[in-house]
Amino acid sequence: MAKRKKQLKTIKKIVTENVAMQDPKEYIDCNVYNMAKLFLNDSDLLALQKRYLAGGEGHGHFKLYLAEVMWDYFSEFRQKREYYIKNQNEVREILKMGAKKASEVAAPMIEKNKNCYGD
Fold it and tell me: Which pairs count as long-range contacts for 8-13, CB under 8 Å and 24+ apart, including other chains?
């Protein structure tokens, strides 16, 4: 939960225009909207645009929405990270396999260079 609070604290610091809550908001140059574009599909983005233009919500509402969108978007990655933190032996095996593959690819090239330039 501390990570979520830290994320929200950071998002709340995003600079936005000072517009009365009841007034429509411009979304095109809004930092919060432009960040949300990175995580939303077309229909959700259109719905967010309508919320901006309708008025009745402040930028704080959009910041909370962005925090939720980002939290949901990265949930799978957080789960994988927790899994690998708890399963360090599996991480070591993956790294060993990667090193073996890299060695298999690099060895012929290294040998070829040795033969070309002499050792």
Answer: 8/64, 8/67, 11/63, 11/66, 11/67, 11/70, 12/60, 12/63
SS3 string, 33-87, reads HHHHCCCCCHHHHHHHHHHHHHCCCCHHHHHHHHHHHHHHHCHHHHHHHHHHHHC
Class of domain 2-86: mainly alpha
Confidence check: pLDDT of 119 > 70: no
- Local structure of 111: helix, strand or coil: helix
d(CA 113, CA 119): 9
Give the model confidence (pLDDT) of 45-77 as tens digits: 999 999 999 999 999 999 999 999 999 999 999
